[in-house]
Amino acid sequence: MKKRKIGMALSLVLAAGTLLGACGKSDDNAGKDDAKGGDKDKAFTVAMVTDVGGVDDKSFNQSAWEGLQAFGKDNSMEKGKNGYDYLQSKSDADYSTNLNTLARQDFDLVFGIGFMMQGAVEEIAKQQKDSHFAIVDSQVDQPNVASILFKEQEASFLVGIAAGMATQSDKIGFIGGMESEVIERFEAGFVAGVKAANPDATVDIQYAGAFDKAELGQTIASKMYSSGADVIFHAAGATGNGLFKEAVDRKAKNPDATIWAIGVDRDQADMGADVVLTSAVKRVDVAVQDTATKAKEGNFPGGKVTLYGLAEDGVAAAPINAKVSNKAEIDAAIKTWVDKIKSGDVKVPGTRAELKSFSAQ
Amino acid sequence: MKVRMSKRLIGLLTPIIAVLLGIIVGTIIMLASGYDPVAAYSALWNGAFGEIYYTGEVIRQVTPYILAGLAVAFAFRVGLFNIGVEGQFLVGWLAAVWVGISFDLPKIIHLPLAIIAAAVAGALWAFIPGLLKARLRVHEVIVTIMLNYTALHVSNYIIKNVLTDHKDKTGLVKDSATLRSEWLQGITDYSRLHWGIIVAIICCFIMWFLLERTTRGFELRAVGFNQHAAQYAGMNVNRNIILSMVISGAFAGLAGAMEGLGTFGYVTVKGGFTGVGFDGIAIALLGGNSALGVFFSAILFGALKVGALNMPLEAGVPNELVDIIIALIVFFVASSYIIRKLLDRFGKKEVK
Fold it and tell me: Does A139 share its domain with A179?
């Protein structure tokens, strides 16, 4: 009995060994073919590393990837090693490995998407001086790194205006991802916008502590709606998907209730046609496309910080949902504020400290 | 004698077969979902050992894995489930960086001090469930799971409010406390390989020596085999329970030091768990809870994790597939225990 079992086990091992051995041989040939293909044409190549959210997070990473795809389409590139591609990180430890992998594969430009990659980009940029990197939402002071920053406060100010005008309970919610400078800009701009449009409204500010936990976003949203809030804005990446789920569920149960959710990063109207009021659009796609184009043309903005604000079309408020009763007024108000911000008459606060001294008049 | 030999052989074969079965089923899944398994596995291999850089990264990943695996295995040998390795790992990471950035000492004192601080922090964190188990019979699984969350949020708070002024990242640890080495990075083409692997290997040896070659180790194992028998034989069960949790926590804390002083050199506010502690459970399970077994299974897991990152780029296969394969391996290891148990019972009935 025992003997037969061992015999079985051994033969299994042998069988698997042969299988794997066969794998080893054929892969050598595949590798060679690949190398040949790569040498033929050395066109411009570009890639990006996502944070743990992944390219289907419906917000930040997805927007960046859409930008890269658009860039690839414009330049008739193919997804893959000889065109454009992305790598997804599964933990903080992977950022460095992924960035390095892409630099090693001779991608001409490698994007690090997210401020969490700042340390990794800085370190690798020092080591791989011949490679070009770009980081979104953070600043790295190296000659071969282009830093891309947004004036998130301007977009969230505009959606704050919309929230302040759409609310009926004068209670508004804000769900942040992790506390950071970027999310603070969202928060400060949003609160300033709400106050500018509706001084009576209060904003309940809560942080989920993560960008990838939709269930947490839903819990927070549920509490906020239950305590009377009727407009909630999230700046929390994939965590915010829970907000939309909660809003859609509530709206389905009670179609007459005022339930609005405001999206972030990209126009998230597709998350719920009845509940998405607008979105604080951060055109990561525009910035990524723009930086890639500059690099392709040989004008890589290395060592520089590029700021994308309202004036640069880097941020915007998405179209207001047609189902809002006072849509025309909101549209008009937003238009006025856009002009004021663009002309420099109004400087939207980007930190909590600036918010304290901010007055809309 | 003959029976014992074959039992040992089966013990050795079990994890190997589980790994192979995991790979084979993984292949079937890839074929069924339209991916090329040959390309996937070769990308996996190249991503782990194809270049010296990746090999360095694998060793870097293996280092905390060994220690986390040892932590789980050590507690398990004494009959305890330490699910709190992740939490002990986080407090160890925090403690190591805290010491690393706060003092100015010569390297010969500073580095060991930072490493010991991590071990002590992890040990203290594990002491709590150990004490509760020994005194009040509170099940350690529940306490350690809850302490994971406590560790996550307490360390986030300390990073934000004590170590920095509302930043999400501390500065780099001082040069005198770092495990990093330009030389190691140089020979591995700028991987993040650091000296921590030496610490991990020493700990493997310590665990083996402690459990197999000392009286205390014999007592610990005796408690693991049968608490009542151990007590009857005059051993202090409660003290051994606490001791095993403390040592287990120290290993976990050291794993955190590897990240804090080596891989990263800083500590960040985290949105969720790193997963190292939970991977440690799988590593210990696959390694049969022995020091040598943990060493080898940590190498396998480290290679799988690092190699997987290369799969989407080189083969167009999503790297989640590696998670599936790892899950399958764990499944087969676990089910092989079930099968063995069933066979044992079956065998006994036959004798009757």
Answer: no
Kindly state whether residues A156 and A142 are assigned to the same domain: no
Task: Decide if B309 touches A, using CB distance below 8 A.
Answer: yes
Q: What is the pLDDT of residues A164-190, one digit of tens each?
A: 999 999 999 999 998 888 999 999 999
Contact at CB, A97 and B17, closer than 8 angstroms: no
Q: Which of B6, B38, B190 sits opposite A27 (nearest CB)?
A: B38
- Torsion over CA: B322, A128, A62, A180 (sign): positive
Q: State whether B269 and A178 contact (CB < 8 Å).
A: yes
Could you tell me how many CB contacts below 8 A there are between chain A and chain B? 112
Closest CA to A204 of A220, A183, A185, A184: A220
Kindly determine whether residue A101 and residue B310, on different chains, have CB atoms separated by under 8 Å: yes
Interacting residues of B104 by C-beta distance below 8 A, sequence separation 6+:
B110, B174, B176
Based on the fold, state whether residues A236 and A350 are members of the same structural domain.
Answer: yes
* Minimal CA separation from B33 to chain A, in Å: 19
**CA dihedral (B52, B190, B194, B288) positive or negative:** negative
Domain boundaries of chain B, sorted by first residue: 54-297
Residue B253 in contact with residue B88, Cβ under 8 Å? yes
- What pTM value is reported for the model? 0.84
For the ranges A6-15, A323-332, A342-351, which has the lowest average pLDDT?
A6-15
B348 touches chain A (CB under 8 A): no
Full domain range(s) for residue A112: 46-150+288-293
Nearest to B6 among A2, A98, A213 (CB): A2
Does residue A320 lie in a domain region?
no
On whether the B54-297 domain is CATH 3.40.1000, my answer is: no
The string of pLDDT tens digits covering residues A138-156 is: 999 999 999 999 999 999 9
Q: How many domains does chain A have?
A: 2
Q: Domain for residue A7, yes or no?
A: no
Instruction: Tell me if B309 and A20 make a contact (CB, 8 A cut-off).
Output: no
Shared domain check, A251 and A182: yes
Q: Does B36 touch chain A (CB under 8 A)?
A: no
Q: Please answer whether residues A150 and A113 qualify as being in contact, where contact means their C-beta atoms are separated by less than 8 angstroms.
A: no
Q: How far apart are the first and last CA of chain B?
A: 23
The verdict on residue A299 lying in a domain is: no
Is a pLDDT exceeding 80 seen at residue A323? yes
Whether this model's ipTM surpasses 0.90 comes out as no
